[in-house]
Amino acid sequence: MNSSAVAVLRDRIRRIEGVGQAAGHPVLPLGMKPIDRALPEGGLPLAGVHEVHGDGAATGFCAALLARLHVMDGRPVLWLERGNDLYMPGLARFGLKPGAVLTVSGISRDADMLWAIEEALNCGALSAVVGEIRAADFTASRRLQLAAETGGVTCLLLGETGRGGAATALSRWQVTSMPSLPDGAGVGWPCWRVELIRSRGGRPAAWTVVWSPKGWTAITEAGETEVLPDDIRIAG
Amino acid sequence: MNVWFPWLVSERLVRREPELAKQVLAAIEERRGRLVLAAVNRRALHGGLKPGMVLADARAVQPTLQTRFVNAAADRAALVRLASWATRYTPWAGLAEGDSLFLDISGCAHLFGGEAALAADLVARLKGFGLTPLTATADTPGAAWAACRARQQETAILPPFDSLTDAMTALKTFPLPTLRLPGDTLDSLTSFGLRTLGALYPLERRALAERFGAEPVQRLDQALGVVDEPISPIAPVPAHEARVACLEPLMTRDGVETGLRTLLDELCRSLTQSGQGARQLTLACHRVDGTTARIHVGTSRPSRWVEPLFRLFAEKLDEVNPGFGIEVVTVSATRVEALKPAQENWQVKGGGGAGLAELVDRLGNRFGFGRITRPTPRQSWLPERAVEDAAPFSSSAATEWPAGRERPLRLLAVPEPVETMAPVPDDPPVLFRRHGKAYRVKAADGPERLEGEWWLKDEPPRDYYQVEDEEGRRYWLYRQGLYDAGVQPRWFLHGVFA
User: Fold this and answer.
1) How far is A9 from chain B (nearest CA, A)?
2) N or C: which end of chain A has fewer CB within 10 A?
């Protein structure tokens, strides 16, 4: 069986899985080869729901994804906050420009949050919606997935660690802080353990991601990386 | 139209104490140290009692007289409620002298089948509340007021005043007290033998004004329509309003939706004609039992599009309980702003913009518009002041976030005091405690000294450190104030990094 036949079969399987993701569907490459290679479409499939679990590092991971998406798409991002502590000057470090993000703060009830996410996905005037929600049940998650597909808007559900969401999302990530790589004295570059727990049509994997002023770099578990910026020395 | 409640005070007393209905009843008040009748019921009037009588005299005439003290404030409040109820007919509903209301029904009588039908409907409903209204409809408020008292009919209607002669003819025979004058002015006019409005016509106006003050002339001119008398509405009259009276009371949400759509259609046409868009709208559902359910919605920018506005209302329509049925529905634009055709094109064509505006409206109506912001940079050194919570569609200058400053992803609204171990002065702590858990600091950057602008300098400067714990989590801590040997420094957690 030649490789194009395999590709066709893969595509068909993905469609049977009910995601409606055919080849040619918009994809956001993360710009980190080891991770992009592990994702079946070569990047994060857009117009779908993705779950990102974790602490502050997960917020940073989302910010970096949104910044890439906003550069590519141009439409604003809506960030639906559970509390009222998102700080734009900090998000700016990951490349989000002023004015790129609209925020709605203080959506503390899950029901309100789900309603707001779905409304925002249906509106079609956004590139992405971030909903800070711990868990969406199967039905809610399915609704969001449908709304994301119809509206052509990407949805990130940002939740705390350790809660299993529904299996309808296109992917689930777990992002946790790791001791930073030293860049000389003091605190070094932010360093995260990024785990792809589940992805539609792909296999779980984990990487160490380093955020430097030049962008992010992924290191596989085996220690491979394509290019590591000169100024980063891998500790240990 | 003037709606007069001649027995308002006694009817309200009876409503509270139904056993008073069959009694000779008077409301009393104290005037110059004496108890005087302020208002009486029908039985008392037939028994020879009148407002203004001294209580002792009244008791002599009617020994069975029951009395209650007047509650003028409550009576007035009741009249205000009646006026607000009457907005089901017209937004121009206001209080008038002597327990009565003025309604301007000129633009809306047709919705209720004409003036006579409207008056009959109004009287029937008010009777249902246990009141006895008398109404008169005329071309001027003054004439209506006069006719109401002169005719004492449930639905008196004066012929239209096509000319001043018409007006003079219509009012000629009305007794002088129907002119809404203060008691002493009225007394002196009567003492000159003037008993009807017609008696005033031949008098020279200047002489009249000199002798009796400006009021008789003014009231007469107002009644005749020579000068205009505006009605002061009980609630601000919206610039744009649409109303529908339903033949069959609406009992279902579907019914209300249909009505709402029709009304919005009308309202939006009227907004288009005046080049305006609505920022705030109110839907009022007047129920059969006289109560009103109101829904308010707001928009983030002027709008006159039926569908988006309809959806804003639809979101809240479940709050409307039809009760025994809704008879009159109104939609009014309570705040409007200019909306140029250019903006309209932009909204309709630039699908993204319109879709986003609509989304912001829907979120704003559910969570409050204040919670939706587009954070933009502001010149300030203090982190909590460095972000401007701009409105979603404000045109912000394309400034960048200040470069070279490490800022956390999450900033606590209120810095959280933390216990620290900082053995070396002017150094970051080696350990801090939060919620009873200890965090060992592995690495730290800082200090970055931040101070408020000079006009805010009532607070000591803060020294910020970015610290990393053993697991790689990063925190933004600061020490309040300069390090001073004698004083225990206070430390706060202000934010979290990625």
Assistant:
1) 36
2) C
